[in-house]
Amino acid sequence: MPTWFRSVLVFSLIYTFLVGVSALEKGIKIMGEDTQEALFSSVSNPIAGLCVGILGTVLVQSSSASTSVIVGLVATGGISVEAAVPMIMGANIGTTVTNTLVSLGHVRQSSEFKRAFAAATVHDFFNVMAVALLLPLELLTGVVSKTATWISDRLVGTAGTEWKSPVKAWVKKPVEWIVDVWEAVGLNGNVLGTTVVLTGLVIVLLSLTFITKNMRELVADRVEKSVNKVLGKGSGSVAMLLGLVITIAVQSSSITTSILIPLAAAGVLSLRNAYPVTLGANVGTTITALLAALAASVPEALTVGLAHTVFNVLGIALLYVPRFIRYVPVRLAEGLGEVAFSRPAWAVIYVMTAFIVLPLIGVGLFG
Amino acid sequence: MVMSFFSKRESGLDHIVARAVGMLGDARHSFDLATLALLTNTDTAAVEADIRATDERINNMEQQLRAELVVHVTVQGSTDIGSVLGMILLLKKIERIGDQATNVLDLAESGVRLAGEPDTEAMLAERGLISTMFGEAADLLYEPDVERTEEFTERVLAVIAEHRAKIESYLHSDRPGREVVPRAIYYRYLKRIVANLLGIVRTAAEPLPAANGPDDKDD
To answer: Which of A80, A295, B8, B117 allows an S-S link to A21, with CB 3.0 to 4.6 Å?
Structure first.
């Protein structure tokens, strides 16, 4: 496929993605306040919100998709920014399941598996540590949501006002067509709202999948060059910036981090070199939620998108910048890699427990 | 460094081929110096550091390029896996030439001197011919050409046959061991070097079938 055509296709897919986010918002608005209240009351508890964020992201295998949905939900007013922040943190943890699953593909080569599993779980450990540190801080002081609100206020105005997003106007018509189509088949009320939400979800997931696929094709050569730089003499900050740039380009942190796994498994990339790339990818992936916020009509949507960015930047500031703590996630991942090396079944138990069982228990207890 | 993401310099296999051509240039440099040390009165100590440093540079570059090939497959997928496997083989052959040039130096360092002998001029001429073949191999690696590759292959096979015959004759010669053994060893190294050059050119033209080329028989 010619590059120009693929570029046009990507722009069309981004537009489709924004239509999907806007359809989500519209569908929930159609449902009415009572239904919204009933739907979202379960995530008002931060632990439940965190666990829903993990489970939702594991389900769709993409934090870009789940955070975009969260942005859409906040745009409807169904969820407050404060309630959405733990969900965003959960999405950050949930997205690491993809590269952990990729690492399981190396299970037959034990030494390769040890390196691959460690490279995958360093992302898990960093995100869990960041949540362990920042969620209590957020609950006590609102550091993440207040910082995001402060930035958002300066960019688009104060919360509670109507934000005249130009993108919102561009996507308005297609969203109306979606609603019209479902109304034409006789749907109304909550059924219509749910159907529009599901349509929006399908559009968001499909368009993100194809955006990622096409962007990967478009920038593959550049990604290859950048990864080679990381293999060479790149410093931690350079590796982090490259992780950020690659992830913004391919719109998926899972793509970036999953590229690192075979390289770590083959022994061509050390865990310490892969680690900062992962952190850059964490920040880079927040661009999608910011993009989704462009299709929303209230400043709170942008605030949530920014909260995702602020959370990841603060995580780096607290867990990577200070030298004494910088390599704790690396050492923990190496330890877990050793365990998985000696008993591969533990790797599977770890994935099931961390990404499914514990979040389900969390939702059950606190939801 | 981060800006490299936005730069337009060559990437992927083209970049690796360009670096492999550089490695071949280094291998030629080692070969020229090592054979000079053996066939003339050049002080081996004067060239030793250069040859060993060049060999180390070749080895490091091979490791780096192999890592870059792993990156290439990881990022781009397996569409050009044949070329990648061929390239790994090709890099190994260049690395071996570097080692074989060092073996020639080792021969000179062990006290063998073939300077001022009746066949020295012929050996020096042959050295020049093989050195030229390095240049041809580099050209064909950079720009594979079926006709030139065939013509190069014919010439290289003739040289290999000639070397094999020489080795045979030295092994069965009645001349003193101190005369024929160094020559037999030297020609064995030359034969391997030339065979590896052929392997490089054939792998560049056709990545996988060259795996069973004549160059692999002796290594």
So the answer is: A295
